Amino acid sequence: MRFQSFVNFLPFWDASNGGGQSQLSISAPSTIYAKPNVVFILTDDQDLHMNSLDYTPLIKKHLLDRGTFFKRHFCTIALCCPSRVSLWTGKAAHNTNVTDVFPPYGGYPKFVSQGLNENFLPLWLQEAGYNTYYTGKLFNAHTTENYYKPYVNGFTSSDFLLDPYTYQYLNSSFQRNRDPPKYYPGEYSTDVLASKAYGFLDEAAEAKDPFFLVIAPNAPHSNVGWAGDDGDPIGGGTFTLSAPIPAERHKHLFKDVKVPRHAGFNPEEPSGVSWIRDLKRQSQENVDYNDHFYRNRLRALQAVDELVDGVIKKLEHYKLLDNTYIVYSTDNGYHIGQHRLQPGKECGFEEDINIPLIVRGPGVAEGAETELVTTHTDLAPTFLSLIGADLRPDFDGSPIPVHTDSLLAAEKEWHEHVNVEYWGFALGEGQYESGFKYENNTYKALRVIGKNYNVYYSVWCSDEHELYDLNRDPHQLNNLLSDHKPRPHKQETILDIPVAKVAARLDSLLFVLKSCKGERCVKPWAALHPNGDVRTLDDALSKRYDAFYEKEQVKIKYNRCEQGYIVDAEGPQFETNGITYRDGLRWSEWT
User: Fold this and answer.
1) How many CA atoms lie within 13 A of 199 on its CB side?
2) Which positions bear 3-oxoalanine (Cys) (predicted)?
3) Can 80 be counted among the known catalytic residues?
C-alpha cells in the first residue's frame, strides 16, 4: 500500500512523483449539513503487524484510499472488554476499573457495577441530539442470561451479540432492544450482522436525524466453544479457542499465505520476560497449524470487507455518504508465532497494541497516513469533537485531529507517549495451547515515539523490566535491561545516552501515567516539570536532570501480583503536586 504522508509536516510530498507535489484530494460534503453522521466499524482482535489490511481490497478502496490511516494508533490494554470500556468512556483501564473479560474484575457485570452504564458515549451522543444504533459485540460476559440485568443504556435501537455464542461463527445469538435473544444456527454471524447494520441505516435514514451507528463483528476472533452444561461465560467455564471459521464462499482463499516471517517470528533465541523467555521454539507441525489459523483469520475478514462495501452503498443510496464520518478500528491487536507465542494477545509487544485506525469523512485527507501517536482513550473525545459536542472534563484522552489543517498543526505539539497496562493472565489460543493461562502477566508499560527515538519500557509485578529500542530492534528481541544471557556487543546507549539514564526518565514518566487521571494522562511531563521546560523525552534527557531522575524520583515497584486492579498491590502512587503517598503517608515518611 502506498499512502501520501503527513510525516515531517510535508503532507503533499510524494517522492514517487519526482519530489513534486502530488494532488491530495480532500473529501468534502457537497451540501452543508448541520450535523454529520458517524459510522464506527469495530472488529475484534484484528492485527496490523501481520498485514491483515493487505487482504481487504474493499476496505482499501473505500477507506484507506479515501481516508487517513493513523499508523501509530494504540490500544492501552490488549484485551477486548477493558479496551472497549476505555474506548466508550475515554478513560484508562485503571480509572474504569474494568480490567478483565469476566467478573470479578471485568465483563459486562463489572461495567454496570462501576456505574458506567449511566455514563458513557451513547448517552452523551443522545444528549447532543443524536440517534444511536449498535449491532454486534459490546462486551464479554454480556449474556443470554443477564442482558436485562440491566439493559444496556444509551441506544435508540440495538441488536447485540450475546455470550456464550458471541464467538460462534455458525451459531450466534442476537438480542434486539428489549426482545428476547434470537438464535441463528447455521447462519454465518458476520452476514447476519451485516443485514442488521443495513437495517439500522434504513431506520436512521428514515428518521432524518443525525445518527451514530456502531457495527462490531466478532471477526477475526477465534471461534470459541463452551463445554456442555458447564459452559459459563460469567465464571469462565470450560472453553476451547480454535481457528476462526470463514464463510463458505471464502474458504478457498489464500491457500499459500503464511504468517509473515520476520526476525521476531518463532526466533531461534528466546526473548522477553521470564514466562515468555521460557517458551519452547515451535515445531514445524505447530508452525504449519498456526499458518492455517492465520489464513482463517484473513478469510473471516472477507465478510467484514464485504460489509464495508455494503455500508458505503447504503450511505450512497440515501445520499448520506458525503456527510458521514466512517471510522474503522479494532479493540486490540494479535500475535501468532512472534516471540514463540501461540495465537493470542494480552502482551505489550507491538503486534498486540499497535492497531488499525482509519478515518474517512468531510475534510479528511484521502489516501493519506500520519505518524501522530493516538490511543483508544482518544476515541470518545474524538467522536464528540466530530459532532461539535462538549467534551467531558474527566477524559484521559484528547480529540484526534482528523481534518487536514488540524492534523498538520497537531504534529508540531502532539504528545509522543502511550500508556499501556495489563492485569492477570495471558491466554494461549489455537490447537496447541487452547485455554492455557500464563497467570503472571501483570505489567505497566510505555511507548514513546519521537523524531529520533522509538522505545518501549515496561515494569512487571515480578519486578522484571524491559526496554526496547525499536529503531534498532523493531521486533523487540533485545531487552536492554535483561540480565539473562547478554547478547554479544549488547547495545549500551540510546541516542548516544547510556541506557540506564534513558530508563530512569521512562520509569518516572510511567510512574505518573500508571495512575494518571484526566489531563495528566495527556501531559504527564508537566507533573514532573510544572514550569513547562520539559515536554518530551528529548527534553528530559538533558544532563541537568540526571540527579532528579536517577536519585530523587521514586521508582515503580509492585507490592504483589494480582489478577485485577487493586490499588494496595500497585506500589507507590504519584499524587498531586509531585508528592508520592501510600496508605496516607508521604513516601519519605513511609520509607
Assistant:
1) 12
2) 80
3) yes
The mean pLDDT value for 509-517 works out to 97
Please give the CATH number for the structural domain made up of 35-417: 3.40.720.10
Q: Which three cell numbers stand for residue 29?
A: 460534503
AA identity, residue 74:
F
Q: How far apart are CA 346 and CA 442, in angstroms?
A: 10
Q: How far apart are CA 453 and CA 471, in angstroms?
A: 7
The separation between CA 282 and the C-alpha centre of its own chain, rounded to angstroms, equals 27
Three-state secondary structure string covering 365-378: ECCEEECCCEEHHH
pLDDT band at 484 (very low <50, low <70, confident <90, very high): confident
| pLDDT at site 228 | 52
Q: What angle do CA 341, 342, 344 make, to 5 degrees?
A: 95
Question: What is the Cα–Cα distance from 149 to 103, expressed in whole angstroms?
Answer: 15
Q: How far is CA 202 from the centre of its chain?
A: 30
As a whole-number percent, the residues of the chain with pLDDT over 90 amount to 84
DSSP of 266-314: S-SS--SSHHHHTPPPPPHHHHHHHHHHHHHHHHHHHHHHHHHHHHHHH
3-class SS of residue 2: coil
DSSP assignment, residue 379?
H
Per the DSSP assignment, residues forming a β-bridge with 5 are 369
Chain segment 406-421, per-residue pLDDT in tens: 988 887 789 999 999 9
The three cell numbers locating residue 186 = 447455521
* Alpha-carbon gap, residue 519 to 500, rounded angstroms: 28
8-12: Cβ within 8 A, 24+ apart: 9/408, 9/411, 9/412, 11/365, 11/368, 11/404, 11/407, 11/408
Q: Provide the residue type at 576 as one letter.
A: T
Helix ranges restricted to H, 61-207: 80-89, 93-96, 107-113, 121-127, 189-207
Alpha helices (H) in 4-146, listed in sequence order: 57-59, 80-89, 93-96, 107-113, 121-127
Cis peptide upstream of residue 220 (ω within 30 degrees of 0): yes
Compute the distance between CA of residue 202 and CA of residue 495 in angstroms, rounded to an integer. Answer: 55
Q: How many residues does the chain have?
A: 591
Distance, in Å, from the CA atom of 101 to the CA atom of 250, rounded to the nearest integer, reads 30
Tell if the pTM clears 0.90, that is, is over it. yes
- In angstroms, rounded to a whole number, what is the distance separating the alpha carbons of residues 357 and 325? 13
Spell out the domain ranges in the chain: 35-417, 419-581
> Poorest-confidence range of 281-285, 353-357, 481-485?
481-485
